[in-house]
Amino acid sequence: MAEEIKSLHDLLDEDPEILDNINVLIEEEAAQSLLTIFADIHPADIAEIINHLDVDHARYVFGLLDTETASEVLVELDENIREKILEEIDALKIADIVDELDTDDATDIVSELPDQIAEQVLENIEPESSEDVKELLKYEEDTAGGIMNSDFVHVYENATIADAIDQVRHKADDIDHIYHVYVLKHHDELVGFVHIKSLLIHPLTTKINTILEEDLITVNPHDDQEIVAKLMKKYDLVSIPVVDSHGIMLGRITIDDVVDVIGEEAEEDIQKFAGLSEEEEISDSSFKISRIRLPWLFVALFGELVSAVVLSSFQASIEKILIASFFIPIVMAMGGSSGTQAAIVMVRRLAEHEIWIKDSFKKILKEFFVGLFNGFICGIILILATHFLFKTEIQFSFVLSVSLIVIMVFATVVGATVPLFLKRFGADPAIATGPFVTTMNDIFGLSIYLSIITFFYMH
Asked: In this prediction, what percent of the chain has a pLDDT beyond 70?
């Protein structure tokens, strides 16, 4: 009977105090009890537990794990806790752990080590794996080469089904997920692939070149990992080969790696929306995190100071029409929300390649009408609310509503345009949705609002 592996969620359902109990066992150094608990937990969940421990406890728990489990846990740990654990482990122990990993995961771990330790690790792992890792280390971390696995099953084009099955058996212990057998020419140029299913439904003597799939979708090792993720999503691929400029196969990228990439890219975009940096994830220093956030806060501060200048320039109007100042937060918030909505939608579409730059005018025009419709609906509600709840004159309610419509349309168009503008000039459009768009809308929205109020009441 297969051994049942419980998820952390299931374990918490059975015993909500399990995490507290684990901490107690760690403090008592009850190693055997801890290993008994971990024996029934998936390595990814063990990693999650370790991620929530303090550093000393995390090191103790990781030190209890056997080499195979430690390797599976290590790749799932948060980068900052992994770094702290590895700095207390000798190079030989790290080498044993790295030897258990696929080449792509091994490369990620080695790349994070200090140069001297990395060299010792590479000297103490299997020579073939060492050469593969050294080759992968040449590529940037966020490229196809940086996430590819150099282990793959292949045969040459004159092989038979029987030869391909032998290769699958030969590689089975080294490769966790085998989806395709790749077919190469004798100088290693990729010509096609065969699905594992095809090996089961054709006679053993069938020549591989008679059943191979030649419609290849490949990536270059220097392509950005985001391009890889988009291709695999678009064409529903579970694996994609990596080839050089001459078509020589270098490795493959599998769907489990791409899922990680999608998560990383989404997290990166969210951080950019707020003007943050991924460095925050790996830093425990409040000073460093503060230094990362401050530049965008300076942008916002400068923008709001400009807004204050705008307000002061309309001081006479505000003094004569005091009630206008009460509604500044409303029009600013509605404008900011409209701009942010449009920017986020545009960034997402750009990220998914749903928008071609040449079609950008149509998209901006569409957002213009969205802003106009939303502004009109919100304007009607504002007329009714201000006239009946605040007992304002109908003329003022009408002017306030017109201001809101103009500001929402303007903010929506700006929010949609800025990401396209940044994309056109090679910048990352994700930064548009943070303090940049919000601050710009505050400045211009305030100017529009007070200009309209002044025009109607001061002339």
From this structure: 86
192 DSSP β-pair partners: 183
DSSP summary character for residue 191: E
Pairing of strands 190-195, 180-184: antiparallel
Q: Which residue has the tokens 């190693």?
A: 31
Total count of domains within the chain: 3
Contact 278, 271 (CB under 8 A): yes
Torsion angle defined by CA atoms of residues 192, 255, 269 and 426, in that order, rounded to the nearest 10 degrees:
-10
Cβ-count burial of 286 within 10 angstroms (0-12 exposed, 13-18 middle, 19+ buried)? exposed
Beta bridge partners of 249: 243
Task: Map residue 402 onto helix, strand or coil.
Answer: helix
Q: Which of 91, 120, 145 finishes a domain?
A: 145
Per-residue pLDDT at 283 = 59
Asked if residue 270 belongs to a domain, the reply is: no
Residue 269 forms part of a structural domain: no
Residue 52: predicted pLDDT? 85
Residues 352, 433, single domain; the answer is yes
Q: Which two tokens stand for residue 379?
A: 């304007």
Query: Please, which contacts does 312-319 make with residues 24 or more away whose CB atoms are closer than 8 Å?
Result: 314/450, 314/451, 314/453, 314/454, 316/458, 317/450, 317/453, 317/454, 317/457, 317/458, 318/450
| Domain assignment present for 273 | no
Please tell me whether residues 165 and 139 are part of one structural domain: no
**Which parts of 71-200 are beta strand (E)?**
154-156, 180-184, 190-195
| pLDDT for residue 281 | 57
Cβ atoms < 10 Å from Cβ of 167: 18
Contact, 41 vs 14, CB < 8 A?
no
| 60 belongs to a structural domain | yes
In this structure, are strands 249-254 and 239-243 parallel, antiparallel, or unpaired? antiparallel
Q: How confident is the model at residue 2, as a pLDDT?
A: 43
pTM of the predicted model as reported, rounded to 2 decimal places: 0.66
CATH number, domain containing residue 47: 1.25.60.10
* Whether 107 and 175 share a structural domain: no
For residue 89, what is the DSSP state?
S
Domain extent, residue 354, equals 278-457
3-state secondary structure of 75: coil
Please state, in angstroms and rounded to a whole number, the distance separating the CA atoms of residues 67 and 94. Answer: 9
The values of phi and psi at residue 186, to 5°, are: -70, -15
Q: Map residue 339 onto helix, strand or coil.
A: helix
Burial-class residue 299 by CB neighbours within 10 Å (0-12, 13-18, 19+). Answer: middle
Query: With contact defined as beta carbons under 8 Å apart, do 211 and 128 qualify?
Result: no
Q: What distance in Å separates the CA atoms of residue 52 and residue 449, rounded to the nearest whole number?
A: 49
Please tell me the total number of residues recorded for the chain in this structure.
459
Q: Tokens for 20, please give them.
A: 């507290």
